[in-house]
Structure of Membrane-bound ClpP-class protease:
Amino acid sequence: MARKPLFLILLLALAMAVLIALPVSAQSPSAQHSAASASPPDVRVMVLDDAIGPAVSDWFVRALEDANDEAAALFVLQLNTPGGLDHSMRAMIRALLDSRVPVAIHVAPSGSRAASAGTYLLYAAHIAAMAPATNLGAATPVELGGGAPAPKPAGSDGEDQNTAPDSATALRNKQVNDAVAYIRGLAELRGRNADWAEQAVRQGASLPAEEALEQNVIDLIADDLPALLSRLEGWEIEIRGQRHTLTLSGSQVRNIEQDWRTGFLAIITNPSVAYLLLLVGIYGLILEFSSPGVGVAGVLGGICLLVAAYALHLLPVSYVGLALIVLGIGLIAAEALSPSFGVLGIGGVAAFVIGSVMLMDTELPAFQIALPVIAAVGTGSLLLVGVIIRLITRSRRQALVSGADTLLGQSAVAIQDFEMLGMVHINGELWRARTATPVRKGQRLRVIGRNGLTLNVEDAS
């Protein structure tokens, strides 16, 4: 019954979260249609100035769905990205290809780039634009390949042309060929330079804006958003096989701001944050199970563990690294419960640190666990093992602190008057005592010996 209020609070919190997640506007479809017809369609502008990950992908897909539902005149993605995760990029491209609203991707402002995953997005857009002094390219896949070097041509350096490639080279070839086929398909769909797109994947080629325009990689160059909208007035594009002419005059520009969901996903999908949430969850449950109490550690640990599991599901995780982390924590806990004088504990710390380094299965810097975080947690775990070993060693050296023999020298209090045999109170227990001199009730005595279940006492004054 004591946990029932906590259960009700959790249910109430879940209900409030559902209410917050519901759309603020509850207009009927007819009301929305009348509102849309009362004013010209607006231009939606999203600014993406970060690596492409689960939070960014979710934000883009939802914003583009809203633009489609409300029949926006144009969706503009102002892009500056070093790249990102493959599955997040593909989710954005799927939404872009399904869009009924024209999508323009503008690499801006000057000095920005659309590297790696950004190049694929630029090729997928209905309209590809760049500001002066920007660049795109370097689209060789690195997330899954682990940075393996490009394979040598068959027969080079005296190799036998019939020699089968090793597994790493074969995997690398599959990844590169898949990426080439994907970007060539996007280029052919939008009528852009497919040969250069293949060079960007196979050779990591890059282009500045002016050369990209000359080689038919992009459609136009615009300094900023007003210049872009001015150039696109009357622009003809193809959407789902039908020609469409852009009419942007009189349209209001509406900037898309990040909502609480995007901010929350951005925090928990930060690899360092997800890593710490995982550790808090595991240690919280270990603490709760080892010494059950009011349930705070268990509730907090369970919540953190579930949030971490959701975040890791969205990130490229090495399950071998995750297994090593769990094994390491288990060995450290085993050291505390079943002392081995450091064998289990030190082995657990080693497995824990190795698993932490391996946890993120990608070479993208934006999705790596910060090494200082791993170093701090690993050092803390090593210190914890050291404290455990020291406490165990100290306990082995201490004298016996339990049993009847530990009563020698301790103080007792007489609970009655007696001359030879009587009862005394010591350490919360009643013992029969023998004395050579008369004793008064409440007199303080000292234990000087024991004979079976009878203590030999004397006056302690």
